[in-house]
Each structure stands twice: as structure tokens, then as C-alpha cells.
Amino acid sequence: MSSKALGRRTLGGVPSVLAALILIIIATSAAILLYAWKVGLIGEITSMASADLRKIKIEGVSVNGRTLTVYVRNVGEERVVVSAGYLIYSSGSASPLSFAAYTSGTEIWGGDVWRVNPATGAVELVSSGKVIYDTFTSPNPSVWDDDYVDYNNFWSAVYYDPDGLKLLSMRKLGAVTWAVRGLITVSRMIDLSKPVVIEVDMQKTYYNVPGGDAAASPFAACLYLSPAKNRNPYYATPWFAAKLYPRPSYNPDRTEAQLVSLDPFYCTYPCMETLYIWSSAPNTQPRGTFILVFNDTVKKDKVYYYFWHGGKSGSPYRSGSWSSDTLGLLYGTQLYLYLTIDNKVTASSRKVHVRYLKVYTNTSIKVEGVQPGWVVRVVDSSGATLKEVEAKGDYVYVSLLKEIVYGNLPIEGHVVVLTYNETEVDTYGGLVIDPGEVRAVQFLLPENLEEGVYTFKVVLVTGEEAYYSFRV
């Protein structure tokens, strides 16, 4: 074979080898791109004619149920504002997506723990702060034993009706001590190793009272807390109580709203703080509403109180704190709760009215699963904001003390978590991203979105757009 022919075959084979290599490279690259697209590693598309003109870049997305998190980078030299996002279907139609806001169900109690669930697009209740909420329209044997507290009575009764609990008592003739009638929780339900809030509305009625002068009549409306169980809670020491208590030896006779504690170790006579006085007069029906907050984390011998003489309306007549050595024995323990009529009357029965009792575990709620910069709101049923807090970490506490004192719990409303700051959106028209910054922007996807491939479009206030394809 001549050298000329050999040279032709060698030179002629070079293009064939290069072509084969190019085909291999193209096939491999296509396979890699197809895999990356399927798993969502890539997906950015730009409508810009030149990448050098782009102001933003979508660096990736993640999908968690209904929550689409889009990571947007500002690749320009000026601040940009993300104003909107759109979900584009395979058909080419597009739906606007809102910045993610999560909402809870109704009924909010102090002590509730709530958690954002991105998968469902809701704020879900982890644990309720409610311990007891009773308006006493009917017996509740799972909570109350209404037979046990019945001491020294000749005639007595417990009634449940639409207006609340009615406790009646008449002392046995010849008895030298008080008679007591009422309810006790079936177990130790008040745990003072943690914060506890108690709200109760009690009244001495003028039922069977001569002249209607219940303020001067020797019977009391009482709420007791004690780790002990006794048919007469006065002997279930140590105890703390809120009372509407008669003081017949004073001039004139009267009833006092009191905070009281007793333990023979410290004193043989109750320690007491008087919050209000009703003097003897015809047709008096002393009524007091107490809010008692046990959250002393320092000495653990204190109760914070808010008191209204009458129904709870407007500002409390008196508020403050009260300490006693006996309270130091009760902190850190589990307690029974008693509601009673304590009575010295032998001529005819007397009646105490308890309109409601609320017990819950704190003056604030906890919301978990948030991120710094997110905003947590408590709103009422009309949507009006009662409280708003910006998160600094992955959880936030929202105080409801103002709503507890000046409003009512439970709040019939919602816990709303915004993944953005509305002030920022109102001021700039969207979410601000500084040059070089990557911002995670959350959007809510439609419910029951079918599996498939979608494209997300982000739009700036200045009109620029960027796209990203992803799989659900």
C-alpha cells in the first residue's frame, strides 16, 4: 500500500472520531440535564434577551404541601422588590399566588401552643391551655363531684341552670361550726408547678335573706385551692381562697371581697387581703369577679389579682399582687379546686350564685414553626388585630394579658402567621431584596394540586420577570 493511500485513510478517519465523541457528549449532557430537571435541581428560565440585563435569578424552589418556597437572588446592583408570583400550568394558563399566610381555627386560650404546618397551610393546635371552662348549665361529673362537699348541713342543694351554679345551705340547729356545701374537682386539676390563671364570678344572693341584706347575712361565697381533700375545705390546709366573706362584728355589718390563705404551720388565723367592702343595706347582693394569675417565678409565694365589684366590665376596681407564706407551700403542687357556700345560718337556707369559672395555663400563647421576620397576629372573629408580634426565632410568645383583663377568653378568632411584613409590602409594593441577597419567599399553592410539572413566574414592581420549572 502506498504512503499516499495510507495518508488519505488516516486523515479521512479523524472527522469520524470527532463526530462520535461529540455525539457521546451530547447524549451524556442531555441525560444529566433530564435527570436534574426531574429532581428539580435546575429549572430557571429567563425571558431576558441577555443574562447581563437580569436583575433577579431564581436559584431554586422547594415544595412542602401547600407551601412553595422560592429562593430569589438579586443579581443586579440596585434594590429590587418582588411584587407577585404566578403558577403556570402545562396548558399555559397562569394563576396568581399570594404570599403565604397561615390561619388557625377558632377559640384561643391562654397557654395554647400552636404550630405552623406548611403542608396544610394552617396554624394547628398542638395543646390547649384550657383546663376548666364551666358555666354550670348542667352537671359535669368528669370534672366535678357535687356530693362530697356537704358538711354540717340540715338542708342543702346544688342546682345547675342556664344562669349558672346555685349552691344552697342551712346549718344544722345546735351546730357550733359553719356548714359548707359545694363542689370539688374529682382530681387535683390545678398544677401550680406551671403558670395558672383562674377567673371566677361569684355572688351572695338575697334569697331567703331578711330585708334582702345579703351583705350583712353570715354566709360566704368561696373558691378554695388545696392539695388536700376535706368535706369542709377550711380544714383542708394548706389552702388559698378567694371569698365574699361576712364580717358581722363590724359597724355596720358587711361583706368583704378577700384573698385568704391558711396553714397552721405559719399562723392559726387566716392571712388576708381585703379588696372591696359591701356595707349592710337593704337588697344588697355582693358580687365579685376575680382574675388570679399564679406565675411568680422568683419567690413563688405571690398571686397577681384583678378584681371587679360586680360583673366584669371596664377596668378592674383593684389590681396588684399579694404574697403569703402559705402560697409558697402551694406553688409547685397539684391542687383540688372547691366552689362552696360557707354558712352560719340556721333559720332558712341561703344561696350563692357562681356564673362561670375559667381555668387556663398562662397569660400568653406560644406559636412554633415560624421564621425570623414572620409576623404572628391574634385577630378576633371580625378580623381585627388584637395583638401582633414579629418573630425573632423559630417560635414566639404572644401575651394576651390585655385581652384577659379587658376582654374575654376564649378569643373567638384566629392565630394568623404572615411569612412577610405587611408594612414592608404596603410601603414598597412587595418584598425587598438588596443587591447580592438571596431571599426565601413563601407562596401558598392551590389546594389539592395535582402531581406534574409546573413553572413559577416571579415579577418585580418594575416589571422584570424570572421563571423556574419544578415538579410537584
Task: Give a quick set of tags describing it.
elongated; eight-stranded antiparallel sheet; mainly beta; 48% strand; Immunoglobulin-like; 4 helices; 3 domains; nine-stranded antiparallel sheet; 472 residues; Jelly Rolls; disordered N terminus
Q: Name the average pLDDT.
A: 90
Q: Helical content, roughly?
A: 10-25%
- Proportion of residues in β-strands: over 45%
Supply the CATH architecture of the largest domain. Sandwich
Shape: elongated
The description of the largest β-sheet is:
9 strands, antiparallel
Structural class of the helices, strands and pairings? mainly beta
How many structurally independent domains?
A: 3
- Rg from C-alpha positions? 35 Å
Per DSSP E runs of 2 or more residues, the count of β-strands stands at 34
Spans of at least 5 consecutive residues whose pLDDT stays below 50 are 1-14, 32-42, 44-52
- Total helical elements: 4
Straight-line distance between termini: 64 Å
CATH class of the largest domain: Mainly Beta
What is the CATH topology of the largest domain? Jelly Rolls
Summarize this structure briefly:
The protein is mainly beta and 472 residues long. It contains 4 helices and 34 strands. Strands 10, 11, 14, 15, 17, 18, 19, 20 and 24 form a 9-stranded antiparallel beta sheet that branches. Strands 9, 12, 13, 16, 21, 22, 23 and 25 form an 8-stranded antiparallel beta sheet that branches. Strands 1, 4, 5, 31, 33 and 34 form a 6-stranded antiparallel beta sheet that branches.
